[in-house]
Amino acid sequence: MLFNSVEYIFFFLPISFFIYFFLLNKRLIVAAKGFLVFASLLFYSWWNIVYLPLILSSMLFNYVVGNTLNGNFNSNKIHKKTILIIGIIFNLSLLGYFKYMDFFILNFNWLTDSSISLLNLALPLAISFFTFQQIAYLVDSYRAETQEYDFLNYALFVTFFPQLIAGPIVHHAEMMPQFASRWNLVKNYYNIALGLFIFSVGLFKKVVVADTFAVWATQGFDVSVTLSFIEAWVTSLSYTFQLYFDFSGYTDMAIGSALLFNIKLPINFNSPYKALNIQDFWRRWHITLSRFLKDYIYIPLGGNRNGSFRTYTNLLATFVLGGIWHGAGWTFIFWGFLHGMALVIHRFWTRFNISMPKILAWFITFNFINIAWIFFRAKEWDDAQKVLLGMLNVSSIDTQVNIMENIYKITIMDFINIQDTTPTSIATFCFITLLFLVALFGKNTIELKEYFLKYPKTTAFMGAVAFTFAIYNLNNASEFLYFNF
Amino acid sequence: MHLNISKKWILYFISIILIILSTLEYLSQRTANKFRTTADYKAHISESIQSNKIDTIFLSDSVSNIPMSKYIMKENILDLTTNQAISLAGNYFLLKRYIDTHKAPKDIYLFFIPNLMTNQLKGKLTYLYFTTVFHNKYEKKVISSLDRNDIYEKLSYFNQTKYNLKKMFKEYKPRKRVSFDKKYNLKKIQKNIDKKRYRDWIRLNTYADLKPFSDHFLEKIIEISHKHNINFHLVIEPMAEEFHELFLESKLYRKLQEKAKQKKFTLLDVNNYFTFYVNNFRDVSHLLNNYEKKYLDIIDKNITNIFTNKNYKANQKGANE
Lengths: 485, 321
Fold this sequence. Notes:
heterodimer; A: 485 residues; 69% helix; 0% strand; B: 321 residues; alpha/beta; 15 helices; 5 strands; globular
C-alpha cells in the first residue's frame, strides 16, 4: 500500500489508529500490539500477498537465531560464531536470490559466453530494509548488546508499517524500548498533532513536488533520444530534486504515521543539499543507512584504525557495497564507487588543513552529487552517457528558449498545469529555481518542528493547505523511488 | 499546556481542511464553465464554428486527439476529437450539436480503440463530462433515459465517495494476474511501459465487447449519418501488434464487422498499413512523438487527405487550440 493513496490516508491509517487505541483503552495490550502486527502485514500484502510467507519466515528465523545468540535459548552444542554466520548467510542468501541472482546470471553469461536463462523474479517489497535491520539485530545479539525481547515486540519491530517498506532503517535498540514502554500506550495529542503536521508536509513533498520533477526526469532519461544543454541540466536537476523530495517526503510520512502510535522514528534527512563536503552530505542524507554502513560494514572492516591506506580502502569498499545495496546493476556500483572515491579524496584533502570558500565548497559538492545521481538513475550506461553529453553540449544553448525574454509571458495556469509543461519552458525553469531555493534556504521538517508549538495556528494552516493541495493531486499517485531498493 | 495546544491544533487543522474543501467544492460547482477541458472547447466550437468549407468531421479519443492537435490539417476538416472519457455518448453529442446548427458534412470518421467502445460512463471521472459539458436539456434526457441518473447525483465529494465505494465492493473481482504475466512475459516489456496498464490492455482487448450502452450511441451516430446522407467511417487507431491481434479475435471486432455490413458503413484499420510495436508508444496506447507523425501520414495517404500538401509544417498548436 502506498502512503500517498486514498486507501491509506482515509481508510487504513485512521482505522488502524482507532482500533489500536480502542484496544489499549480496554487494557488489551497484547491484542492491540497483535492488531498492529496484523495491520502491518495487511499493509505489506496489499501489493502482493505472495511474499507474505517470506517476511514471516525471515522474521521467525531471525528471532530464534537472535535469541540463541544472546543466550535466551539454549544452544550449548553449537559455537555462537557459527550460529551468527549461519544467520547472516541465510539473510544474505535471501537478498542475493531475489535481488542479485539475475544480475549475477547476466554477468556470468557475459563472461563465459553462456546462455543461462534469467529467473525474472519480482523483488519482494522491503526485502533490503528488513534484511538489514535483522542482520543488525543478529550482530548485536552476538555482541550481547540485545535484551530479552518478546516475540510480539520483535514482530512489531520488523513489520511496523510506517517503516516497513522503505525505512528509515531502524535499530532494535531505539525501537524495542518504545514498543515495550507503558508510556506509549496512552493516546498523546501532542504526538497526534505533530504526526499529522509532518505527514501533511511529507505528502505535499511527494505528491506535489517530487511527482512534478518525475515527469521531466522520466522524459529526459527514458523517452528522449538526445538532449540539448538545457534539457540535460533540467533532467539531471529534476532527478536530483525528485529523489530528495520523494524520499524525504516518504520519510516524513513514515515519521508522521508512526507518531500517531507514539513511536518516534529516527530522522533520515537534514537538508542534504546544503552540505559543504561529501562527508557532510552523508551525515545529512539517508542518515539511518549511513549509520548502518558505518556500524556494520566500515567499522568491522577496521574503520580508520589501521592506517591511511586501509582507511581509504575501507571507505571505498563500504560505499561500493552501499551502491550494490541500492540495486543490482553496474550503474549502482559505479555510483557507490564515485561516492567512495569522493570520500577518499575528501579525507586526503583534510590532511592538509586547507580551507575553501564555503560557496565553492558547496558548488563542488552539489555538482558532484548531481552528476553522481545520473548513474544512480540511469537504467543503462547509454542513458547516463546521453544526459552527461547533453550537460556538456554548450553549443546547443543558442537554440534554446531565451528565458529572460519570455519570463513575462508566464501565467498562473502554467504553474497549475506544471506537469504538462515541457522541460525547457519558463514555468519549469521557475519551478526548479524555486525548489532549489527551498532546498537550500528553506527549513526542513526537523526545523519546522521547533515552530510547531510556538505558532500553532500558522503550522495548522500550513499543514492543512499542504494536505488539501496534495489530496487534490492524488489522482496521479505514483510509487516511491526507494520501493525499488 | 501542551495538551491543550495540541488539541486546539488538531481542531484548527481539521477545520481548515474542511473550509478549504467546502470552498473548492462550492467554487468548482459555481464555475462549471466552458473551456476547462478539451471537451469543453470542442463542444463549444461544434456549435459556434463559422465555416462553410467543412465537409469532414473527425471524432475520436486522445490517441488521435494528441497528434491531430499538433499539426495543421486541411480547412475542410473539423477536428472534434477529445478523449476516451467522454465515451461514444459524448462523441454523439458533439456530432449532434454540430449537425443541429450547421450544414451536414459529407464524411464522418470515428477513430477508436476498444476503450472508447467499451466505456459506459462508469469511469472515475467520466461523469464529470456529463455534469459540466454535455448537460443541455436534450443530453440530460438521453442519459437519464438510459437509467444513468446517478451521473447527475454525483456532484459532491460525499456522493462521489459513496459511488466509488459502492463500485469497489460491487464490482470487486480477484484478478488473474499471474496467468497474464506468464503468457505475455511482462517482465520483458519496455521499461517505460507501465506493467499494470499493459496487463489491463491485454485483458481489455481479449474480452472487448460492444456493450448495450456503447451500441446505443453507435447506432445513434449511424442513424444521424443515414438521415443526413453522410458517409460514416469507423477507423481502428494504432495499436501495438500484440493488442491488435487480440482485438481482431474479440467479440467487439466481430460485432463491428457485422454491423458495418448491415448498416453499410466502412470499417477501416490503420494497422493494415503499418505494424506498430509496443515500443512505439509512450504508454500502452498513446504514440511517441515521431510515431504521431507517422500515424497522421497513414491517414493522409490511405484514408483521407488531411494535409494540404506533402511538405506540411509541424505546428505545435497546443491541445486546446
